[in-house]
Amino acid sequence: MGGPGDPPEGTPEGVPGGGEDEYRSVVFDESFVRAARLQEYSAQERMTDHTPAVRRRPPLRRGLSRQALVLALLIALAFGTAIYLGVRHPYQAAQAQRPVDPLRTTVIPLAPRGKVPGAADPEFLYAHSPAARFDVGAEGIPLPAVRRTAHFSDSQIVAALSTAKDYVVASSLHPEVLTGGRTHPVRALLDPGQLDQFDQSVDAPAADGRHAPTGWLVRFDPARVELADRRIRVRGSLQAAETDAITLEVSADHTAVYALKPAGSAAGAPASLFTVRRELQFRFTHDDLRLHQVQLVVSYVQAGPLSCAEDPTGHFRPLLAGQTAKAGGPAGTDPYATDNATALCGTLAPSAQPRV
Asked: What gap in Å lies between CA 249 and CA 242, rounded to an integer?
């Protein structure tokens, strides 16, 4: 007779060690039972008519739970925000709120003491003037050696210097700006915060220290003068300095000398020289550097020969060869010198004129 765990008929023949040994390696743990697709109803449930012996369980969700999905989304959002803030400059938000300062201008006409010297050959005039050793055009404004600052890299300083030079060239060397009445080459380089002031200066000039077109650019009255030589003589310098963590300033000091003659005059008409000394202060934010634009905040201009009776606010109306000024200033001022004039109208020093 078999034991308590044996079948009534005993252990089947041919099964070594008993039949239960064949299933000892199979372990029906809780996870295995829960994963079964079929589940047997309980005895109570099977008492109901037409109830099958087993039921099909819904498939297990093998994806992430809702909480896990929300957590993954938050982690991805935080990671993306960190990357974005790392790429952005940390001071961009602050600089975007900083207002753009308006341009402050000072334009001083310089009146000659006698007749304006003239000659048919502009080269002769240049050779006998302080501009004899000046370079032609943009070559006269070289970029200085660059050294990075605490908050601006070498490339950013070069960008500031190059953009300031582009403004100087566009505003004082382009013939279409000088005598053609165009302003777009200059306007295109300005920070948008200064465009309204620039447009008001061009449309309604005023000698109020804010709205003088000749503070923004060099332009002559085309009804009175024209260029006798497009090869303008220039000498100037540029310097960059960091003012704070988000602002870079560039100072430009340059003198441009123009050969002029009466508008519509025949070839060979006497020409004369006109000198403009400009001291400009530019300001750059990181956005300005990226967009290749400037903020022009200070413009100090000396120009002559001019008559103090003429308003130099809208256009320069130079005295030409053989002409004299109706009124002069209180003291002689040499635009080639490095000291600053303080008079509202000065006298053009004889040493600044060609020796003819």
From this structure: 6
Residue 206 DSSP one-character state? B
Instruction: For tokens 């990075």, name the residue.
Output: 148
Residue 303 is encoded by which pair of tokens? 């120009």
Within 13 Å and on the Cβ side, how many CA atoms surround 336? 18
Collect all residues with Cβ–Cβ distance below 8 Å to 198 and sequence separation of at least 6. 103, 183, 186, 187, 190, 216
* 155-202 pLDDT tens trace: 999 999 999 999 999 999 999 999 999 999 999 999 999 999 999 999
Residue 236 in contact with residue 141, Cβ under 8 Å?
Answer: yes
Amino acid letter, 74? L
Q: What is the pLDDT of residues 325-337, one digit of tens each?
A: 875 444 556 677 6
Of residues 237, 350, 356, the one with CA closest to residue 304: 350
**Separation of alpha carbons 311 and 199, rounded Å:** 19
| Distance of alpha carbon 48 from alpha carbon 26, whole angstroms | 33
| Residue 172 and residue 278 in contact, taking contact as beta carbons nearer than 8 Å | yes
**What is the rounded end-to-end Cα distance, in angstroms, of the chain?**
146
Distance in angstroms (rounded) separating the CA atoms of residues 110 and 149: 39
Contact indicator for 340, 297 with CB cutoff of 8 Å: no
CA–CA separation, 321 vs 262, rounded Å? Answer: 9
How far is residue 195 CA from its own chain's centroid? 15
C-alpha–C-alpha distance, residues 277 and 285, integer Å:
27
Q: In terms of Cα–Cα distance, which of 96, 240, 94, 251 is closest to 156?
A: 240
CA distance 173 to 230: 9
pLDDT in tens, 24-56: 555 556 665 566 555 565 666 666 655 565 555
Q: CB neighbours (10 Å) of residue 206?
A: 13
Given a contact cutoff of 8 angstroms between Cβ atoms, the answer to whether 283 and 249 are in contact is yes
Distances (CA, A) of 120 to 166, 264, 265, 296: 32, 15, 12, 37
**Cα torsion through 182, 298, 343, 315, rounded to 10:** 10
Query: What's this model's pTM, rounded to 2 decimal places?
Result: 0.71
Residue 309 DSSP one-character state: T
